[in-house]
Amino acid sequence: MNVSQDQKIWSLNTIIWLIFLILISIIISIPLIYFNSIRLDEAQSIWQVSHSVSEILDIVGRDVHVPLYHIILHFWQAIFNNTIISARYLSLFISIISIPFVYLLASKLYNTKIGLMTTVIFILSPFISWYANEARMYSLLLLLAVLNSIFFIDILKEDKRISWIGFIITAILGIYTHYFYWLFLLSNALFYITNYKQFSRNLFQKFIIVAIILILAIAPWIYYVINLGSAANTKPILNAPSSVDLFNIFSQYIFGFQPDIINSIILSSWPVIVIIIFTTLQRKLNYSVFNTFVIFQMLIPVGLAFILSYLRPIFLSRYLIVSSLFLYIYIIYIITTYFKRQMKILYIGIILVIGLSLSFQIYNPNTPVKENFEDVSMYLTTKATARDIIVLSAPFIIYPFEYYYQGVTKVETFPIWDRSKISSIPQFNSNTISTQVDKIKEGHQYMYVILSYDQGYGKEFKTYLDNNFEKVAEREFSPDLTLYQYKLKL
Asked: What is the CA radius of gyration of the chain?
């Protein structure tokens, strides 16, 4: 197999460009880190890592995640401080480390031109930027997938021990970062099975050994989780995905998170654009081994997650962040290979579209993923009194609310959740609405109700409140985060 390179991968000009791109990435991150309220997932991260290591393992084991990121964040916070800003810096730091490796991966797959062009798209991507500055494990998930892909491509090109060692280490770290890393590894396996002739001979046994090592590596954690049991109802309930959700994921990869009006326009035009492109290229497309690898990583994890979501809804774009990078690589490959005359215009157009999408996402207060728990907490700190009661539904939004709240008003959840006990959030029961509300409102003058993350009973709960109490105020602080004030006494 002959692999051509335009030039030496690590030239002085390239290093200067990468340093410049890292600086741009840091500048982009400033408003994302400092001017966004803490979000539900971030608040849970902060709360989880504030415990001891053994307690973190217990908490994460009862949740839906694996513990590597939480352990890293725990020690990061111990060195710095347990704030959302500090936690976001960790994600940014990991994302910055990813930048040269993104360039290296794309360069190994194709050439350095595609490597640099992809890296520019990577740092400007509103989707990548959002999770590069969120206090969650997704930047670590992406970094480990990029490193693993580099070692996998090295194995494809030449069977070396160092490549296998790197592949195994990054795979073990990956499966302890997020369960969806397994979909990425499965895509690698399917690629090898369908393209085994492109590899050196007798690698099948080595891949089987790697698979056994990974199973043995994750087995203690699985055993630990099974013995703990799971904590139901601590995470938002997801709906089974539709074909619209499938297109929406790829739309988010390119345009990030936009308000419903803009998103509707994008989704309505997206299929037409795809059809036009592939109709134009249907006689030209080259299905080389590297193109096949990129396509596999771009589509198979998404497709598998979509199918599995009909058993248990798990179809979220952030879980599939790895596929977004391979989409960027493939887009750049297409325009540099098949649109050479129009390449500059197309590339500038892509940068402008992605750049505008990034700006809208950062500065638009109605960006769907923004959760303004800071303002609603500060508002109630000054507005609500000791004679009132604050009610949060769904109950788990108490984590981001309490991060900011400094008031004297009692805070309760609906359904009522006794957090002094190690237990999951109680299941909603329609027959107990009246009893629970009577218990909550007793002795109070006003009830401030924050509704967010509807778990299937939000409408019924609100209808009961509207029918039994006088609503005196309503205010939306961000999409899907609304405060209602009810008068309890005349």
From this structure: 24
Encoded tokens for 350 = 């892509």
| Strand blocks (E) in 335-409 | 389-393
Least Cα distance to 64 among 305, 185, 182, 233 occurs for: 233
Alpha-carbon separation of residue 258 from 100, 310, 314, 344, 424 (angstroms): 28, 26, 21, 26, 33
What does the block give as tokens for 330?
């493939």
| pLDDT at residue 309, as a whole number | 87
Residue 338's alpha-carbon distances to 277, 292, 327, 351, 463, in angstroms, are 11, 17, 16, 18, 57
Neighbours of 271 (CB within 10 A): 11
What interhelical angle do 68-79 and 138-157 show, nearest 10? 120
Helix, strand or coil, per DSSP, at residue 41? helix
Separation of alpha carbons 242 and 164, rounded Å: 39
305-329 confidence digits (pLDDT tens) = 999 888 888 889 999 999 999 999 9
CB 401 within 8 A of CB 392: yes
- Please state, in angstroms and rounded to a whole number, the distance separating the CA atoms of residues 143 and 99: 9
Q: Does residue 486 sit in helix, strand or coil? A: strand
- Write the Ramachandran bin of 183: left for phi over 0, alpha for psi from -120 to 50, otherwise beta: alpha
Q: What is the dihedral of CA 439, 441, 443, 446, to 10 degrees?
A: 170
**Alpha-carbon gap, residue 29 to 19, rounded angstroms:** 15
CA 418 to CA 134: how far, in whole Å?
A: 29
- List, for residues 262-285, the tens digit of each pLDDT value: 777 776 666 556 655 655 555 566
Q: Which residues pair with 107 in a beta bridge?
A: none
Q: How far apart are CA 85 and CA 398, in angstroms?
A: 19
DSSP track, 419-480: TTSS-PPPPP-GGGHHHHHHHHHTT-SEEEEEEES--S-HHHHHHHHHHHSEEEEEEEEETT
CA distance 191 to 346: 30
Q: Which amino acid is at 249?
A: I
Confidence of residue 239 (pLDDT cuts 50, 70, 90): confident
